[in-house]
Amino acid sequence: MYNQLASWMVYGILHDPYEEFFISRQEDRDTEHDSSPDVLEKLARMSTNDVSLSDWHLGFHISLDMLPEYIPMRVAESVLFAGKAVRVLRNPSPAFRFHDSPSHPQIPRGSQRIQGFMERLSFQKDPSMDTKLIGEELLPQSEADKIEAMLQDLKESSEFHKRSFENAVDSIRAIAASHLWQLVVVRADLNGHLKALKNYFLLAKGDFFQSFLEESRQLMCLPPRQSTAEAALMVPFQLAAIKTIGDEDKYFSRVSLRMPSFGVSVKSSQVDLSKAKVHTDGEPGAQPDMFSEMSIDGWDGIALEYSVDWPLQLFFTQEVLSKYRRIFQYLLRLKRTQMELEKSWASVMHQGHSHFAEHRNDRMSCRQHFTPMWRVREHMAFLIRNLQFYIQVDVIESQWNVLQAHIQDSHDFTELVGFHQEYLSALVSQSFLDIGSVSRILDSIMKLCLQFCWKIENQESNGNTVELEHITEEFNKKSNSLYTILRSSRLAGSQRAPFLRRFLLRLNFNSFFEATARSVLNVVRPRPIVPVLQ
Fold first, then answer.
1. Which residues form the Gamma tubulin complex component protein N-terminal domain (predicted)?
2. What is the strand order of the sheet 264-267 is part of?
3. What tens digit of pLDDT does each residue of 55-98 get?
4. pLDDT tens across 149-162, in order?
5. Which of 34, 94, 231, 473 has its CA 20 to 30 A from that of 505?
């Protein structure tokens, strides 16, 4: 057993021809159940990076049948982690040496294709030699000798001491976790990538998305066209980047825009802007018969993707990135709604001034005609602004500061993964994305706001207001239902409570929401009857 432990925890090699060790390969068990040609072909096509990731996430597991009764499950999990970590440290990706070099110059976006070509030429020299050298840097020989010495001391002991064995395993695990932390956090620049995900997926770079939504506003007033939706978004995406993002932002080239329902990605670094502008100017984009049957809300499917290199895939799994995408889609809809409400204010004011000029003798009726629209728009903007401020400041910024404090204090990779999971879970829960009833109401409110804005901009000054009145009525019901749910006793006792109270305080600072909710939902409590004193 000690020989197998040494092979696994010192070199990251699982040498168990007779299947006696309690660590075993996952694929050995899987291939028994599924050895179809498709699966074997898929495994054959996997690249070195894919195999490395597969090994980390699914490659090895604890075989409970072979686990000795004197080794607790916690200790077995530490053995599993230490071996996988050593395996990663001793087998780095060949591409990692380029990102790891501190003297590697910044290459402009336009030269990225040349950079990739030069890197491929460099790989052809002798990648195995460089990989071996980097592996020795990531796990110094002195540390490997220390691990081997611990196991050798246990092996030479005449008796098995459970406490000594557990302490040795914990020490080895700490060494492996510390070096893996050094690799991911320091050498792979984890915090820079976390900051980039915050900038783009959590909309911290507000000027970029403000510019993007303004550039694409006319496009998004029409339903997305199935054949050119992604290509049409490419132009405003790149124009916004030119206006707001400098060349020093080395992470922007990793971001790509896509429409999942159509399945085509729009890479941020693969655009010819001069051709794109000509294409937009000459594109017959206003032909209604060319559009698909999707509604205008089909643009809510806009998503971002982020390209992650080795070894950050150990940290940014597909599950993690899917959570970021879900939050991004929610925040982008919110920002788009907020911007449309602001734009509609200018439209309403312009209509009001024009109407006043045409009906100077009947200004009272003009005022009565436009005042309800102004009031409803302001109520919508008030709710959306407060929700946006709550999520961006009270939720995202506060949780980001907590995560940064954890990154500064922790030097353990597994701890860091746990802290990041807590960070994402807090973003989801405190943004109400995990409460179906609340998220559905918020989606309905945003759609009503957008419909209201489009109706205002498209209606004639003396047009029919029945649809606007219907939208107003629905908005009042939804907004008051939202307030009633958020202040319910079920949420008041949850972990969201302290953050939720801030949001409710902003909404109901003058008791308007509470009074309106009671009247609209018919939950007005009867006043207590004061007995008359005889």
1. 2-185
2. 264-267, 255-259, 303-306
3. 777 778 888 888 889 899 999 999 999 999 998 888 887 766 54
4. 998 998 888 888 88
5. 473
What tokens does 312 get? 């950050």
Give me the residues paired with residue 306 across strands. 255
Report the DSSP beta bridge partners of residue 257: 266, 304
Pairing status of strand 264-267 against strand 303-306: unpaired
CA distance 256 to 241: 12
How many CB atoms within 10 Å of residue 274?
Answer: 8
Rounded distance, CA 374 to CA 384, Å?
15
The phi-psi region of residue 329 (left if phi > 0; otherwise alpha if psi is between -120 and 50; otherwise beta) is alpha
Q: The tokens of 425 are what?
A: 């879970």
Tokens standing for residue 401: 């500061």
Strands (E), 145-301: 255-259, 264-267
* Backbone CA torsion sign across 371, 377, 380, 384: negative
How many CB atoms within 10 Å of residue 46?
12
Do 309 and 419 form a contact (C-beta atoms < 8 A)? no
- DSSP3 helix / strand / coil % (the chain, rounded to 5): 70, 5, 25
Tokens at 521, concatenated: 């939902």
Write the DSSP symbol of residue 412: -
> Which residues, at least 6 apart from 279, have a Cβ–Cβ distance to it below 8 Å?
231, 235
Bond from prior residue into 311 cis (ω within 30 degrees of 0): yes
10 Å Cβ neighbour count for 427?
22
Query: Which residue stretches of the chain have pLDDT < 50?
Result: 28-48, 98-131, 133, 262-266, 269-296, 461-462, 523-534
User: CA–CA separation, 486 vs 509, rounded Å?
Assistant: 15
3-state DSSP assignment of residue 33: helix
Q: How far apart are CA 142 and CA 38, in angstroms?
A: 44
Residues 6+ apart with CB under 8 A from 282: none
> Going by DSSP bridges, is the β-strand pair 60-62/23-25 parallel, antiparallel, or unpaired?
antiparallel
CB-hemisphere CA count at 13 Å for 301?
19
CA–CA separation, 524 and 518 (whole Å): 5
